[in-house]
Amino acid sequence: MTVPTPFGVRIAGTGSSVPDGVLTNADLESMVDTSDEWIVKRTGIRERRICDRAAGEGAFGLECDAIRKALDAAEMDPGELDLLIVGSLTSEMRCPSNACRISEAIGAAPAGAFDLNAACCGYVYSLNIAESLIRSGRHRAIGVIGCDVLSPYIDYEERTVSILFGDAAGAAVLVRDDEHPERGCIYQKIEANGSGWESLYMPRREEDIPPNAPPTEVRLGNLRMNGREVYKFAVKKFQEVIEDALESTGLGVDDISQFICHQSNIRIIQSAKEKIGLPDEKVYINIDKYGNSSAGSVALCLDQVTRAGKINPGDHVVIVAFGAGMTWASSVWKM
Ligand code: COA
């Protein structure tokens, strides 16, 4: 739980960015042995956005666009940021971090800047860490970006992984709120367990592949997944993290205005909805249009929900994600 401070933390603005390129289920039907009917029934996905690498599109561009929109919404100057955190596993280079390049590109330097890799949990991990740093009194304004451009790491000749993922970025600007100490993240969890890592991984070399790995057609360097194992983990973990967030804060479903969940598979979200009893109007869904955009997913949802006017000052919002690692995270906010 949050240690009380004489100031709160406010999400001053959000933004998001997706590429224009659309990859539909019909497109995938012409690339691999699959069908629109199978994909919609098993995942809820109808289309996803994909960067055009030949046109120079990628994570860096989407990230710059998303944080600029978040700063505009916050009516803030980039120079007011004192830190920039980018939750992503797909920064263009291993070194430097995209955060450093973005900070320079938008005019936020000399704000501190770093990338954080927690796979699909990258944004929720980053959001929680940023909030905690402001709470500590050491920072006043932090830009948080969640983005993944996984399309260059997807083998589009293989059907189990290629149908799931899309590219997207979302961002938020967090600021210290001296007027409202009650605002901010009232409960958060960032956890991981590496024991199941081989269910979802991206080997660079033969040596990275565990000896007991099942045979796959996915090429080296691309994302490999044991869909059934990830599914079992996710269904259990989603229910657990939402119930933990509610029990730990003493809040009931009626007290929450929105549950913002990582968009991995509509059936995983439906399962948590049914088991916990979450009403449709409180669980935002955009997986049909964007697929699973990894660390971009929750960030994109938060921006879309905010811009749709579904979150008002004083509302309680529960944000949850899980991802490769395996990682999971929750963040409960009083907005
Ligand atoms: N199109 C058509 N058929 C497909 C297919 C595709 N794209 N992918 C798999 N199949 C086939 C399988 O070969 C299998 O055929 P069989 O019964 O003849 O052996 C059948 O469909 C069922 O496969 P299965 O793997 O059991 O399907 P599923 O219901 O578990 O759905 C996933 C597969 C990947 C959609 C599902 O497991 C999932 O969403 N897992 C979690 C993935 C995830 O969230 N990853 C990101 C984490 S952040």
Give your account of this protein's structure.
The chain has 335 residues and is an alpha/beta fold. It has one domain: Thiolase/Chalcone synthase (Peroxisomal Thiolase, Chain A, domain 1). 32% of the residues lie in helices and 24% in strands. It has ten helices and 13 strands. Strands 1-7-6-4-5 form a five-stranded mixed sheet, sandwiched between helices. Strands 8-13-12-11 form a four-stranded mixed sheet, sandwiched between helices. Strands 2-3 form a two-stranded antiparallel ribbon. α4 links the parallel β4 and β5. α3 crosses α4 and α7 packs parallel to α8. It is globular, with a radius of gyration of 19 Å. The model has no long low-confidence stretch (mean pLDDT 96). Bound molecules: coenzyme A (COA). The site of coenzyme A has 20 residues, from α2, α6 and α7.
Q: How many domains make up the 3D coordinates?
A: 1
The chain-level structural class is alpha/beta
* Largest sheet geometry: 5 strands, mixed
How does CATH name the architecture? 3-Layer(aba) Sandwich
Helix content: 25-40%
**DSSP helix count?**
10
Concise account of the structure shown:
With 335 residues, the protein is α/β, with parallel strands linked by helices. Helix content is 32%, strand content 24%. The protein is built from 10 helices and 13 strands.
Quickly list its features.
335 residues; Peroxisomal Thiolase, Chain A, domain 1; five-stranded mixed beta sheet; 13 strands; 24% strand; binds coenzyme A
